[in-house]
């Protein structure tokens, strides 16, 4: 037959309950949002320099066109004054 043994301690006993606390994922969500903002900011900064280059090329092309037109007008005036 099996004997059962019970041990009692003098004084008060207490029970400790440990609950694991899990994060709701808020930190991860904020981290992803910050990463997206950094990527979008970098994209706009890189495109800004490309847009500046395109504007410079457009202005250069317009100035060359004005210069060519002025040269043609000058040539026409020179030929008109020679006649």
TrEMBL record:
Keywords: Membrane, Transmembrane, Transmembrane helix. Residues 61-83 are annotated as: Disordered. The keyword Transmembrane applies. The chain crosses the membrane at residues 26-46. Residues 69-83 have a biased composition (Basic and acidic residues). This is Uncharacterized protein. The lineage of its organism: Bacteria, Pseudomonadati, Pseudomonadota, Alphaproteobacteria, Sphingomonadales.
